Amino acid sequence: MKQTLRITILALILISNVGFTQENLTVFKFDTKYYEAVDKWVVFPKKDVDSTYAYGFIYIDNQAGFTFNYETQFKIKEGSLIITPKDSTIGSMKYRLAPNTSLVSILNKDQVSALNLPPEPEWLKIYKKDSDQVGYLKNEGYHYNHVGACELALIPLLKAYTIEPHFDGLEFELSYAYNHLGQYDMAIPIIKKAIQNNPKNYYFYRELGFSYVNLNRIKEAENTYIKGIKMSDNDFEKSEMAINMAQAYFKLKDRIKFDEWAKLTRKYAEKDSRYVEYIKQFEQNWNNN
Fold it and tell me: Which CATH architecture has domain 134-284?
């Protein structure tokens, strides 16, 4: 009786393990943004009318940005992944990933193994050969910032900053990431050091003014933006600095100062720009609340 019971329990364990493995192979969770799946094998969701899934590897091309290297396709049949043979007449297919790229599912170890894939492709090292260099790290941070993944951008940017803080464009990307994340106190000392090193870069004044505005240090923000506008040769950037100050004074209900910055916004912004529209809305709602 005991022997029979032991065999039954063992059989149940084996059946349970087989079931888990099959589920592990055929279940996909399309809940990951492409920039969260860098250096991973991924599968894209299929259309309802399709029977196959496209899969491949996501990486960052340091110059071009987030890229999907298409491997081939597979379909699910009786709990297994059936690979579609590659067309030998077609070379490597790479796709630049745009902000509207669909969510992906990262392939787990079992799925990677079932698809006969290595942990990472051999060609990846070509794109990683300078990954410890400041320029590479700065560009990597830029690509993350560009899609709004500023928390991920901080990782390479801070690493680069410890090596060469005044590398061209690095301080801007780092302060931009902190400002985007609402960590204004972290951005300010970085921008101040950047200005000491390069006092003629108006982008630094734009970011510093933004930090001050969001910390309600309005006078410091105004003085900073005045300097930035004076040295800028870009009307759009001037209008952005002006609208930030106009909004700050709208919140304070300081009509004299608001009118001053509203006038500057209209001076530098395109007539049909959203900044001019914001000014109109502020004026129309001045007496509300």
Answer: Alpha Horseshoe (1.25)
